[in-house]
Amino acid sequence: MKSSDLVITGVGMVSSIGVGRQSFTESLLGGVSGVKRLDGETSEENEHVTRRYLTVDGEAILDEETAVVASLVDFDGKDFVKPRKALKVMCREIQTAYAASQLAVQDAGLQPYLPAIPADESQGQTPRVGGKAVRPCYTDGGRIQSDRIGTVFGSEMLYGTPEELSDAFHDCLGEDEKFYPSQFGNAAMKRITPLWLLKYLPNMPACHFSIVLNAHGPNNSITVGDTSGQAALIEACGYLKRGIADFMVVSASGSRLNATRALFTEDQPLAKVVEPVSLSSRPHAMDADGLVRGEGAGGVIIERAEMAEARGVKPIGKVTGYASRFLPSHAFANNQQNADLRPDAGRGNPAAIVSAMRGAMEEAGVTADQVGAIVGHACGDPVLDACERQAINEVAPEAPVILPSSLLGHTGAASGMMGLLAACVTLQSGKISPVPHADGCVDASGKVQPLNVSSSVRPLEKRVVLAIAHTSPGNATAVVIED
């Protein structure tokens, strides 16, 4: 099977700029940012967002860098998760992944065919398209056979809140008020509910949605940082090509707002606040000094082209090429995880990005001059931004560049999927979304080769979009989508 026989038929988004395809598209093309400043007051809407306070002259002062975020607005897991009792074993990233996947299923028009039914409960019928028989993946009742639909989700380590562990920690304090780690095992057994673990397992987003679909096909969870979403799509394409599934739900979710993660690992710098605040996320800007913390989830339905044709569904786009690469960054190879701003900090590897881009383009059979737009992954970390800039200028320097993180902030393991969704929007609308801070991406000295970005909406003149993602350790993925 050729890659061009694989099509995306539905998309779902849960983001700071909108929930669902329509609102996401309108905000992306309108350059509407989801970045905002939170005050020190905690509400039900922002209680999951970590904010740091500094002590100045004995007074607690809110650290502005941690108060500017791209958090979700008007999202409630109760609107999507059924049965609602499942919410008690779902952290926020699981809820958003579930919601994005559900939206993608609806967008693809798959509801009448789900939940799936095992093949042995009903004899399969063979759909025909233009008189030609296609794979018998439906039951006599018109449902998808359970073994013909699967799920692959991009994920990451999911962190609980400090409050959930506070009772156990308190029991580890001695009479001298010192913390004794040796007592934590027994304290945790008494004070932490056994269901706690189920809320934070990285494979639970795929698990929950497979159950609701009754999907018995391939099930996997990919945890490779920011590239997880695109890597999940690549994995799903492999299943479809091998003929072990006909429909795949591919999703990814992530967050950079959690307190425990912020305390455990500071692996990328945070952006200084600028005015207007909505422009604080400034990937590829010459004065970029860090990322804005965000959250979100995205999902796509990918299926064999003949299945979409049989259902009378017009694809959003064809997946014609993809590649995944890993070339260790200097920092990773030398165990030097850091958030330094110095150019030689060693995060990321431009060679990995170049290899992934060229690999995807070669499989798709397209050249640099045929690429209508590149969806970049840069998030405002000047070290990683420089890696991406070098790669794009080496592979396709003339291609217009889209930077979704300028509106979405850094969404963790969801960020690669968000780029893929931006590519789908670009192809569907025929428009290249603006980069609000495009003027700041030009080096006045002329020493840095600029990217082809614009603060205005531009037409997509060539119907080929390349989405890329990469990580600090040196992972890189690239996916080509065409009409």
UniProtKB/TrEMBL annotation:
SUPFAM superfamilies listed in its UniProt record: Thiolase-like
Write the record's keywords in alphabetical order, separated by commas: Transferase
Mind telling me which Pfam families this protein's record contains? ketoacyl-synt (PF00109), Ketoacyl-synt_C (PF02801)
Ketosynthase family 3 (KS3) domain residues: 3-483
A GO molecular function annotation here is:
3-oxoacyl-[acyl-carrier-protein] synthase activity
Query: From what superkingdom does this record's organism come?
Result: Bacteria
Any single GO BP term? fatty acid biosynthetic process
Return the Gene3D superfamilies for the record: 3.40.47.10
One Gene Ontology cellular component annotation held by this UniProt entry: cytosol
Q: Which family does it belong to?
A: Belongs to the thiolase-like superfamily. Beta-ketoacyl-ACP synthases family.
Instruction: Name the chain's protein.
Output: Beta-ketoacyl-acyl-carrier-protein synthase II
What lineage is this protein's organism placed in? Bacteria, Pseudomonadati, Planctomycetota, Planctomycetia, Pirellulales
